[in-house]
Amino acid sequence: MKLDNAYMDVVEAELFAATMTRKERGDKVVGVYCAFTPKELIVAAGGIPVSLCASSNDIIPVAEQHLPRNLCPLVKSSYGLALTDTCPYFHFSDLLIADATCDGKKKMYELLSQIKQVHLLGLPQTVDNEKAHEYWLSELYRLRALLEAELGNEITDESLREAIKLYNRVRESKVRVFELNKGDIPLLTGSEASIAVDPVGFEVDLPGYIDRMNRVVEFAGERGGIKPRPRILLTGCPTTSKKVLHIIEESALVIAMENCGGLKTVDLVEEDGDPMAALARASLKIACPCMSPNQRRYDLLAELIREYRVDGVVDLTWQACHTYNIESYPLSKFIRDELEVPFLQIETDYSDSDTSWIQVRVEAFVEML
């Protein structure tokens, strides 16, 4: 097994073919833009979830015809692919579910609604009171009713519990992949781990997704350890572009990733009791800076730094991502002063124009470790 782009291309082709087969039978694809959307509801309704946050820099100039240049590249790339209809994931989506997280995404969703049907989930901006949980639960019930109407299937509590159990197995497999690097001798590079936990498009075959991650665990154990290097924890914005990840791994090892899609989103959902209430509680645990205050991110990073014996933390911030950028300052003080771990913030976009500058900063940071 070789965890590279060729591996992803093969998996992507298989998943695309399986998705088209199901669409021919009448099943629908539901596009998702954030981890706050419980995909369990989509699966329980007989739908196929697909994540739509984009990583292409080439399409950004097209998006800038409608969006300001000083906007997050993730938002611009996602909108550009929708505007040009050049992304098969967006093209074959029958319905889009959007979470009211950052201002850039919220206003972009208004433009997207002129292209496809968009359902906006009103995400509370704080999680430290019961009213926020009650409000979020009501939003999930609204989503449940919409999915039943649009997909033509009733979401029973039984089908929802089965979907929860399946996604919990996905989360457990992700954790097993990352835990390969907890020991003295790491078994995966950060790039390999990123590929291993990537659903690679349409989530049409969750048992297959789990099996792929489990096979990576077996492969890594059989291959054995890789050469130890300084151990970096990557936090911050979603690693939609792998530029910074790859630059770090030229001189160090990304031992763990807290970003969306990584260890930030692996909390298990309770499998007993009311499944809707369990989904609401679990999804609001996501340590996103759109929440204020965001103490959970500090607690999670402290735990990961200890468990993975991290030598340094790199905070990836996409340009004009104000939520992550502002939080980086108090976060750096917490990690440097209280945890006594070196910290580096990298603010960048999807282009290669600043690659040399980032390399210099990362190399200096690693040498200091």
Describe the fold and architecture.
This protein is of the alpha/beta class and 369 residues long. It has a domain at 24-153: Rossmann fold. It is 50% helix and 11% strand. The protein is built from 15 helices and eight strands. The chain has a four-stranded parallel β-sheet with strand order 2-1-3-4, with helices on both faces. Helix 6 links the parallel strand 3 (95-99) and strand 4. The longest helix has 23 residues, at 157-179. The mean pLDDT is 96.
Termini distance? Answer: 32 Å
CATH topology call of the domain at 24-153? Rossmann fold
Spatially, the strands of the biggest sheet line up as 2-1-3-4
State the major sheet.
4 strands, parallel
Q: What is the CA-atom radius of gyration, in angstroms?
A: 20 Å
Helix content: 40-55%
Helix-strand pattern, N to C? HEHEHHHEHEHHHHEHEHHEHEH
Number of helices: 15
Which SSEs are present, and which pair or pack?
Layout: H1 5-24, E1 29-32, H2 39-44, E2 48-51, H3 60-63, H4 73-84, H5 88-91, E3 95-99, H6 103-112, E4 118-121, H7 130-151, H8 157-179, H9 190-197, H10 206-223, E5 231-236, H11 243-248, E6 253-257, H12 275-283, H13 295-307, E7 312-318, H14 322-338, E8 343-348, H15 355-368
Parallel strand pairs: 1-2, 1-3, 3-4, 5-6, 5-7, 7-8
